[in-house]
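Justification of computing resources. Each target in the renewal requires a structure prediction run like the one illustrated here; the chain below, 71 residues long, is used simply to show the kind of job we budget for.
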Amino acid sequence: GSYEASPEQAFASAAMLLRFTAKMEKEAAEVDHAIEDALAAGARTRDLAGPLPGAFAPRIPGSIPAKDTHR
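Resulting structure tokens:
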């Protein structure tokens, strides 16, 4: 792994938790729509955008930084 967090995947996981575990479909749909809106507005992390200016990849707190192969 690259020890980089993927915010959209974290939110997608939260939506799945709401949908399948908590049976909160409306709230899960709202999270899904928020992800779609962010992507439609151009938000991208390195896993989606590649090594582009403006792409971001938050580091996981307490992780050991991996060699950055994106640059």
